[in-house]
Amino acid sequence: MTATKTDLPIVQCIARARIPTTQGPDIFLHLYANNRDNKEHLAIVFGEDIRSRSLFKRRPGETQNDRMIRGAYVGKLHPGRTVADTDDRLGLTLHFDEKTGDLLYESKTTWDPKNNTLVRIHSECYTGENAWSARCDCGEQFDRAGRLIACEHEKETGIIGGNGHGVIVYLRQEGRGIGLGEKLKAYNLQDLGADTVQANIMLKHPVDARDFSIGKAIIMDLGISNVRLLTNNPDKIVQVEYEPYIRCVERVPMVPIHWTNENAGIKSKEIEGYLRTKIERMGHLLQEPIKLHSTTTTTSTTTTTE
Ligand SMILES: Nc1nc2c(ncn2[C@@H]2O[C@H](COP(=O)(O)OP(=O)(O)OP(=O)(O)O)[C@@H](O)[C@H]2O)c(=O)[nH]1
Ligand SMILES: [Zn+2]
């Protein structure tokens, strides 16, 4: 059954701003409102020409200055610029449907929806992203997604990057949707021996309380239809597919750094359990490295590991 756009939440990009990053490229941070929850979901967009249709749509009575202030401009802002829809210095002009005010697609100014675009749908994880947590790999995944979108291809794995175009849809679904407070309680239950699945159930929550439909609506709003999805989570792939509007043309794996490089990434008992539960109990598409030749040699009296 093909989807109809009406069964998706309605999202509205409220503001977009250029963020010069410490990693090199500028990103364009988009803040969204929606008609499902009162959270500020985000899109971290790499590429000035990936355009939010809801942000760029013309609004009755607004001025060009209003458009520039909310971030609905083409090219680059500079002191003294007065027109949002034209960047004289770069020779770029946006055009709109006179009746509806919708942005018209033109290859010179707007990313082609038919391009295969590298996308990560990332759920907020305060502990992994801001508190140096070694309980999960969310922070590592977030950083790697940004690096992969910015680069042509990843040296270590040969995976083709986004070459400066792509999106991290950042959903405020902390704790797989149960919130930070309940996640902290889940951590205490895990320290008492439960795994991440059991802990959620013991707290009377679903194993995964997330819904990716807002993420889907944001991807569509950004004019992206062919997605190279950065994930190991099969549920995300199923939930993002949305024929004929969104097609997952490729699943790009997110292998924990420590699994391919002994001296890097996150190494802890907790994260081993976290990843093992994802594989064994949540069906994540991750293959634990199989040690074919043990490096442990046993001699008559002692066992030494080189
Ligand atoms: N309830 C609960 N949530 C956790 C735990 N550890 C991490 N999380 C949450 O799990 C979510 C991880 O989401 P993502 O980083 O999008 O990853 P994923 O859905 O597991 O799958 P990938 O796309 O393959 O990374 C975040 O919301 C974290 O806050 C835990 O022990 N319990
Ligand atoms: Zn996490």
UniProtKB/TrEMBL annotation:
Gene3D superfamilies: GTP cyclohydrolase II. Coiled coil: none annotated. Pfam families: GTP_cyclohydro2 (PF00925). InterPro entries: GTP_cyclohydro_II, RibA, RibA-like_sf. Keywords: GTP-binding, Hydrolase, Nucleotide-binding, Riboflavin biosynthesis. Residues 111-241 form the GTP cyclohydrolase II domain. It catalyses: GTP + 4 H2O = 2,5-diamino-6-hydroxy-4-(5-phosphoribosylamino)-pyrimidine + formate + 2 phosphate + 3 H(+). Pathway: Cofactor biosynthesis; riboflavin biosynthesis. It comes from Maudiozyma barnettii. Belongs to the GTP cyclohydrolase II family. Its EC number is 3.5.4.25. This is GTP cyclohydrolase II. The keyword Hydrolase applies. GO terms for molecular function: GTP binding; GTP cyclohydrolase II activity. GO terms for biological process: riboflavin biosynthetic process. SUPFAM superfamilies: RibA-like.
